[in-house]
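Moderator note: this is an archived Q&A kept for reference. The question asked for a predicted structure of one protein chain; the sequence and the answer are reproduced below.
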Amino acid sequence: MVVTLRLTDWDWNPTSVAGLWLTAAAYLWVLHRFRVGRRQQLYFWAGFSTLVVALLSPVHTGAPYSFTLHMVQHMLLMMVAPPLLVLGVPSGVVGWLHRRPSLWHAYRALWSPVPAFVLYNGVLLLWHSPAAYIATLEAPWIHAAEHASFVAVGLVFWGVIVSPAPTLVQADLGVRITMLFGTEVVNFLLGLALAFSDRVFYWPYTVVPHLWGLSALQDQKLGGSLMWVMGQMMYVIPLLILIAWFLGREERVQQRREAQAAHGRN
């Protein structure tokens, strides 16, 4: 049996709607308490809109019938929304956290390279293991927990990567480049395994109606390929930006040294 998915097939799940309302309310509080630039606001609302698409739109509605759509949803929740949300948070929020020791210690413990890298990639691999993934398809509350964990670890990971203050996240440019490269490798291997497997890892997709007439195995291969190719792009782009930034900084340092040496000779 083949299922047709329409653009009007939105799922107004109360849990997702409540979570989105709380997120918007929290940011409105930030706007009231702190000075937030226009660009930062655009970043945040772009990330918030991405969450809406991932959690309420036909992407979510079709996920139980399509592994490919489920992978699109996962990428939106881990690779697109979190960095945009983090870029939308003003530096004043960090100062507010600093004045509250209990929150500050938790912030310092989580927003550092090793915990961020381990949590992000550990959660990614955990939820794509057959047992955990199948559980999300069978129990809505487990599915909601999966989505919440994706966003949470995404905020931690990308909070380290895009932080404008390396000392706060204990990660210089080289460390952030290493984190991105390592995560890219993990994503590559997972996507490769899914794209080239000759067996279906998640059996519920074999007993539900199919979207677009794809078999469960074809759907898995397409979803794995999407994760492999598009997922790589989502890490390569910031990786290249950081490398360009690093090389540009080294060039500026070298130019200053040469200028100082020339001034000394004169």
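Archived answer notes: The first helix runs from residue 14 to 33.
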